[in-house]
Amino acid sequence: MRAAVQHETGRPELDVRDDVEAVGFGPGKVRLRMRATGLCHSDLSAMNGVLPQLVPFVPGHEGAGDVIDVGDGVTGLRPGDRVMVCWLPPCGGCPACKRGQTQLCLAGFMAAGTPNFRLGNGTGSDLFGFAGTGTFAEEAVVAAGCAVPIPDDLPYDIAALIGCGVTTGLGAALNTADVAAGSSVAVIGCGGVGICAVQGARAAGAAQIVAVDPVASRREAALRFGATEAVPPEGLGDARARVTGGEGFDYAFEVVGTSATARAAYDATRRGGTLCVVGAGAMDDLFQVNMFELFFDEKRILPSLYGGGDVRRSYERAISLWRADRIDLAGLITHRVPLSGVNDALAQMRTGEALRTCIEI
């Protein structure tokens, strides 16, 4: 079958091959036929080494498709079911799950250490799937918990986005930060996840939403999706002065994943306000605050992993908001390519040209 492969960390392009096999099917597993997958910035971060990932691997974790087969012991799924991929499925039994913090369950990360692809139609080297999935492939074998049934009216491409970017951005605003109606919000970084944070803040009733991004087309998109104004990074200070009277925003969302943008978001937040860190950054990039400002300003610093809540409930909420036209998900998809064109999708992401590119499989 066809799949895109990253052979070594740091390679800028993927190797699209026709001799990859999905392996590991058995008890507790399902085999999926992928139909659509989104290119998330986390895939690029895994390719360049910002996020740790065993190599060689098949990128992709934001996908949707059909169940081909189910292994022994799998309940609630059957061949032919339409599903989205959950790259961080809760196990239900660990301490984090029992506390209700299912987004902190480590079961999915543990599964990422087991190869689920092989080169050369079974004769070559093992391949890992990014985040235990690997959706840049025609088929994938994943744990049953990674396959979440979707309703018939939900298109595969939109379902794929809900599987990561939509849930992450909406959840940061609605779960982690719990944006209050009438509040002021700044969102730094307006790719697909940042745009969803904008939409989440709007759905929560924020009065002012300032989108911050260096790419003009993304600033224009943010306005279409609910931002009240959009500025380049150098305009954030002026926007803070105008919108908040110099006090600072009630909520600032960092959706880039660098210490520099996190610091800018912290500085843009009012005393007693909330900084929500959504971007996934490198382990050696240190965010610093001094002990006096940490104490005196009483700003809440809230990291948000995968939307900061129960992912299945977050999926259902996103679908309900989409059906009610409260959020625009189709508009997030600005480009479409076949799997053979995945390197074009990477180029579109690197330049900031695309919000989300849908890879049709």
Ordered list of secondary-structure elements with their pairings:
Layout lengths: L2 E3 L9 E3 L2 E3 L6 E10 L2 H8 L8 E2 L4 E8 L11 E4 L9 H4 L8 H5 L5 E3 L6 E4 L9 E5 L3 E3 L6 H21 L7 E5 L3 H13 L3 E5 L3 H9 L4 E3 L4 H9 L4 E6 L4 H10 E9 L13 H7 L2 E4 L7 H13 L9 E6 L3 H10 L4 E5 L1
Parallel strand pairs: 5-9, 12-13, 12-15, 13-14, 15-16, 16-17, 18-19
Antiparallel strand pairs: 1-2, 3-8, 4-6, 4-10, 4-19, 6-7, 7-11, 8-9
Helix pairs in contact: 4-5, 4-10
How does this structure look, described?
The chain is α/β, with parallel strands linked by helices and 361 residues long. It is 30% helix and 25% strand. It is built from 11 helices and 19 strands. The protein has helices at residues 41-48, 95-98, 107-111, 156-176, 192-204, 216-224, 236-244, 259-268, 291-297, 311-323, 342-351, and strands at residues 3-5, 15-17, 20-22, 29-38, 57-58, 63-70, 82-85, 117-119, 126-129, 139-143, 147-149, 184-188, 208-212, 229-231, 249-254, 269-277, 300-303, 333-338, 356-360. Strands 4, 6, 7, 10, 11, 18 and 19 form a 7-stranded mixed sheet that branches. It has a 6-stranded parallel sheet with strand order 14-13-12-15-16-17, sandwiched between helices. Strands 3-8-9-5 form a 4-stranded mixed sheet, with no helix packed on it. It is globular, with a radius of gyration of 20 Å.
**Assembly status:** single chain
Binned strand content: 25-35%
Give the N-to-C terminal Cα separation: 11 Å
Low-confidence stretches: none
What's the mean pLDDT score? 96
Structural class determined from secondary elements: alpha/beta
